[in-house]
User: Fold this.
Amino acid sequence: MGNNILYIEDNPDNMMLVKRALEAHGYILLQAMNGLDGVATAEDQEVDLILLDINLPDIDGYEVARRIRNSGKTRLAYVPIIAVTANALKGDAEKALNAGCDVYMSKPINIRELWARVEAFVPSPMTKD
Assistant:
């Protein structure tokens, strides 16, 4: 297993925060600024984990998760997807999980929680033997 993480996020500030946090732990961050680019990147690159914003400018994160899970690339059926969203209404977490996400995290992003969630799926290259 590698250490490539795809973050699908349209907010440049959130992207920079997550980029700095994950690269500090040795991960490589692939970036997509909208849902369609995110799906294409997931299909074209070797991705070990996907961080997915739900509120995207083209298609929403729920649709992105569904497309990734139903992709012709079999490996994408098993790549962990963490929904990272400001949506905090009742039922939002369940909706994300039903769309194919494995975990639901709320914004604002707590860096320690992010590291823990990512590390649970993809051990940090900095802690490998």
Q: What stands out?
A: The helical segments are 12-23, 35-44, 61-69, 92-99, 111-121. Strands lie at 4-8, 28-32, 49-52, 81-85, 103-106. The longest strand covers residues 4-8.
